[in-house]
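Example 3.2
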Amino acid sequence: MGGAFKPYLQLMRIKNVILAAITVPLGAHFAVGDQWLTQQPLEVVSQVMAVIFFIGAGNTMNDIKDVKIDQEAHPERPLAAELITIDNARKFAKILWSLSILCVVLGAVSLHNSGNSPIELIAIYIIAVSLMITYDHGITLKNTGIKGNISISIMVGAVILYGAASVGNLWTPLVWWTAGVVFFANLAREIIKDCQDMEADEGVRQTLPMTFGLVKSRMLAYVVVMAALVCLYIPYWKGPFQFNQLLYQTPAILMLITLNRELAEGKDYQAASKIRIAMLLGLVGFILPMYV
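Structure, written as tokens:
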């Protein structure tokens, strides 16, 4: 692949990829605490890399599929700007897939050798691959409105579960509530992003705002945000945290509750950005009670 490597990092959307991959060690942390740092660091690091390569491959495939749309909606992206050829992008995606699968195999072998079950790790990965493929290829869930939004949000939420599975402890309740927060927050964000891109998607995708309307779609996104707040609250109600420790979630809660202002004014980009920040603050809010 000729030329500078920077366009390939842009093709992977490396900033988004790294942000997503960070949730792997978070999932491990919510599952077993900080003992993974001394007992299972290689298992977690290998699956961080598996997720980086996996999401990078998916984003590359997505840009290959959407190059014509991006020429209008996102002309700065590497394929739309012709910084990378389609052929080289396909080769790059194959390399990323190969590296991701290799990392999963290493993680599964390590779990087996340490007496833990690798089945959950492999199962989550297979489900994620299936969703990734059907999202952009085959039945192309991406073009089916809310089904596509749910599909991509399951993949994002599953990274937390994947992190817990990487240390052989998937069934910790906190892991599932955290994954719920990520799932619902990302689902709301996907709906809002479809509102933002409605004009560019016209004639190419049949998104929720096209059939449900912009106002109703934004209202639905806010309802979904409330579901994320419920998941955020339950670990402080049912445990493992104490109710007064809910204070650590104040920034995330306030940011999500006040989202209705941006949605009412049709400021979709600002609303989507606000949800991402709130999601990160929510994850921090789960970490702090473990140490403070």
